[in-house]
Hints:
The protein is α+β, with helices and mostly antiparallel strands and 135 residues long. It has one domain. It is 24% helix and 34% strand. The protein has 2 helices and 10 strands, in the order ααββββββββββ.
Amino acid sequence: MLRWTLTLAGAALLAGCATPAEEARRRAAGEKELAETLADYTPARTLDCIDPTFAGGPQIVGDSLLYRATANTYYRNVVEPNCPALRGDQIVIAELYGSRICKNDRFRLLQRGQSAGIPSGYCRFGEFVEYKKNS
């Protein structure tokens, strides 16, 4: 009985793992979505910190977190390496050490709709790149 239970548990864990081809497709789809979202915008300046009060919080797009400041401005954050794969269905839980979100501040990811509410390991914000809408 114990062997059967362990076999089922192992099979369940393996079923949740993405193959390299699936991961490549997910990454390509994320890059395409990011390019489409920022198609009418041009990178402007790089910032270490931004105001966290932008409406709606971050949108996860590919390997980036996008904060919409105004109709004409986005802030893109490419997350530091060694962070679990970002997916658009996750909630970002940021730990602020002041009144702004800054490079190297920590955050965790929570799967939307997860009743247990167990967040991921810690990730760190990278630099923020401001994108301005083309005139």
